[in-house]
Structures are given as structure tokens and as C-alpha cells.
Model the fold of this input.
Amino acid sequence: MKILKKLIKRYSFFVFSLFLLIIIFFIAPNIGFKALSSANSSFIQMLGVLPPIMVLLGLMDVWLPREVLIKYMGNNSGLLGVFFAMLIGSLAAGPMYAAFPFTTVLLKKGAKFSNIIIFMNAWCVTKISTLLFEISSLGYKFTVIRLLIDIPGVVLMGYLVNYLMKKNDLDELYSNACK
Done:
């Protein structure tokens, strides 16, 4: 019974969404089919992105010792930690949801929380593959100006979120990542 409650709690959003989709099918079948088609398309996209990311995560988890990550991205890493968080986030490939498993590994390995937030923000706004497209579409000048605004913003956001987090919430976050 306890396992069933845990499963229900874990997948409650999915069950609720599925239930809502069934209701939509009965009320407006064409909207239901569009929603199902969209969900199917997203699922297929995820299947193309997640397996290589999971392989990389497994390799990172095994090959990157905790002590090394703490040295370069931990609480005492300073500007070097910010640099590595920006670098890893900028070199990343794939949609934002692919960053969350990396975030879990960073938490598990003991990276400083502000560096994790910097990594996630860099994944969103300074990704090199996106920058090349942006330069070709919007121009070099626009891209440089945007980066001059975004890079300090990414760092500031990392430290601001870290400052606003309660210590017990951070402790819980780190302990949940290690489970």
C-alpha cells in the first residue's frame, strides 16, 4: 500500500493530465487528437535527445570524481567555478529539459548551488550552437550586445537565487539528489 501511494504521488501530474486528455476527447475530439499528436511529437523528440545525454551523464558520473568537481565548481571555487559553469552550459546541446539530469549530477557531486543555476542559465542563453544561428539571423552586433547584457545577468541570477534559497531547502535539495 505504501508503494502504491508513493507511485500515485510521483505520477499524479501524469495521471491528472491523462484524465484531462480523456475528458477533452469526449468534449472536443479534434482538440484531443491535436493534443495527443503534440504529446507524441514531444515524446519522439525526447527519445532522440535523452539516450545520448544519459550516456554522457553515466560517463560523467563515473569518470569525474566528486573531489575534482568540488575543486572546480564547489563552494570554494570562486571565479573558476563560475567560468566552468558558463563553459559547460555554453557548450551544451539539446533542449532545456536535457539540462535537468546534468543538474542532478552536479548536485550529487557537490557543485555550489549558484554555479548550478549559472550552468542552467548559460544552457538557455549562451549556447554556442544557438549563438551561431543568432549571428546569421540577427547579426553580429545584436548578438554581442545581447551577450554583454546576458552574461552578467546569468551570473547575477545564480548568486541571487542562491542567496534567496533557505539553507534547509538547499540541504534537502542536495540530499534528494544523492538518493
Notes: The mean pLDDT is 89. The CA atoms of residues 171 and 177 lie 10 Å apart.
